[in-house]
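Sample pair:
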Amino acid sequence: MAEELHVVRNQKDTVFRMLFREKKELLELYNALNDSAYNSPEDLTICTLENAIYMNFKNDISFLLDSEMNLYEHQGSYNPNMPLRDLVYIAKQLEKYTRDETIYSSTLVKIPVPRFVVFYNGTDGQPERQILRLSDAFEKETAEPELELKVLMLNINFGHNKELMDKCRTLREYSQYVDRVRKYAKRMQIEEAVERAVTECIREGILADFLSSQRAEVIAVSIFEYNEEEEMRKIRESEYKSGKEDGIAQGIARGEAEAIISLIRKKSEKGLGINEIADILELDVCYAKKVLDLLAENPDKTDMQIAELIIGQV
């Protein structure tokens, strides 16, 4: 089993990617996202760059359809750097796409329209849909960025984005399968949880053909994904705890906390991202995220009241 999981890590395989590497299922997902009705999977051209590695990550799925280049990514944890990663990916893709053209001629080189989507199913609460922007990462606020890249991030956890799930049966059943694995993993070993989830889903007709034909690989990948997800969760909790302890050590009193929260609120209202706010104000990223989460959850509370909530949780 250890060797099998090692291979999975190198190949960047996930259950999501295993499901949607087939053209039929990928076209189903595309149609659901775009309210289109393409019916020929052969019109879709897979162009995933298997060797396009950036910081040990590969793009999950890339394909061409109707003069659009779609880059789909599955994420089990929130990653605000997806616009930057997709910028690297699309540059490599377009370099490959235009290799027989010359960009130094007087003739305009036509390129497909880039589309970027992240399918998120981590355990941290995230909105149904949100737009991640490359400009959030700029070190200086820019009213009209000359380079922008927008990524649509969709929450595909069970119970979210019902309209999309109703249009794409494969995505809905994938969401049900993941939800079942997580539910069982709360009260039994992950190996047993995955085995039970796979068996029940096959019996109930949830991804039945896929799970039956690739049972061993799905189980191995699911176990690896869950363990990796848990490890990332522990790292984030450790970072957050460290951030709170740093806050105590720095002697942040209510008045000081209120001033910091006021600054965070103002920077956020100007459209700055979490990392940029933390960098400008020289704060721990986890602390900045906690403040922003509380501001979003308590829109009617004052900065002092938010400060009291923060201090009460330390």
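The two ends are 42 Å apart (CA to CA).
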